[in-house]
């Protein structure tokens, strides 16, 4: 981490936006490396409180994670605060931990720690004004742009491995949305969860019972374009959200 970069100052700027200030044109200076980005994440979470994690790939390649505030996790059907005009939505699966998971956890231990897997939405709206102009490390410092998680129903049969596509049906404003769905197995998520146990402990935020871990977009990100509602279904499992307008 460069001595010229102050993660506490960057965190204060992001926290101001969390609390209602205008979005930032960028972090000045930007984080010079992943350690600096994680230091910003940690300072934000110390202020807001943790409880959730986002599995992510930096620049689409390298395994990393976003520490997210637990206060941003809501239940299906919630009315969410107004979002920026460029906000997006993703359909995800969310792991709910039924036990603490320490550093060094094996894949078997990580699997045993999962109490349930739920259908979920992630809202994407960075505290940065134009995510197209932000560097990957700036977005990483900002929790990879996450703006909240909506938890839906438990996915039936998730213990069978969730291999292949789930057959997600998505509707925005009660209109069907045709969008490609990515396939991802439970084994892939467990591998990431084992890694996350060590990473989270190193950040001073060890994985605890009740933590929510979103595993990456199955659909999206898709622009909300001012939608007032979203609904997704996999068989009997559903997740929905309503969006207050500015």
Automatic annotation (TrEMBL):
The keyword Mitochondrion does not apply. InterPro entries: Fumarylacetoacetase_C_sf, Hydratase-Decarb/MhpD_sf. GO terms for molecular function: 2-oxopent-4-enoate hydratase activity. One of its GO terms (cellular component) is cytoplasm. It comes from the Bacteria. Gene3D superfamilies: Fumarylacetoacetase-like, C-terminal domain. The keyword RNA-binding does not apply. Keywords: Plasmid. This is Hydratase/decarboxylase family protein.
């Amino acid at each position: 981490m460069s001595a010229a970069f102050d993660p506490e100052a960057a965190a204060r700027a992001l926290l101001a936006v969390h609390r209602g200030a205008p979005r930032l044109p960028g972090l000045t200076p930007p984080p010079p490396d992943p350690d600096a980005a994680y230091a910003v994440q940690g300072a934000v979470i110390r202020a807001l409180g943790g409880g959730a994690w986002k599995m992510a790939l930096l620049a689409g390649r390298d395994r990393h994670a976003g520490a997210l505030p637990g206060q941003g996790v809501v239940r299906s059907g919630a009315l969410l605060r107004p979002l920026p005009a460029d906000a997006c939505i993703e359909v995800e699966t969310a792991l709910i931990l039924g036990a603490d998971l320490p550093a060094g956890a094996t894949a078997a231990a990580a699997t045993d720690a999962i109490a349930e897997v739920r259908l979920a939405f992630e809202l994407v709206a960075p505290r940065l004004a134009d995510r197209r102009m932000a560097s990957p490390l700036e977005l990483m410092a900002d929790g990879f742009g996450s703006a909240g998680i909506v938890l839906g129903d438990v996915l039936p049969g998730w213990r069978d491995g969730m291999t292949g596509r789930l057959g997600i049906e998505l509707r925005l404003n009660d209109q069907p949305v045709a969008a490609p769905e990515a396939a991802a197995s439970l084994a892939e998520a467990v591998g990431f969860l084992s890694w996350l146990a060590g990473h989270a402990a190193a950040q001073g935020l060890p994985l605890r019972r009740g933590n929510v871990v979103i595993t990456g977009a199955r659909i999206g990100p898709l622009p909300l374009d001012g939608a007032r509602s979203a609904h997704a279904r996999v068989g009997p499992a559903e997740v929905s959200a309503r969006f207050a307008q500015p």
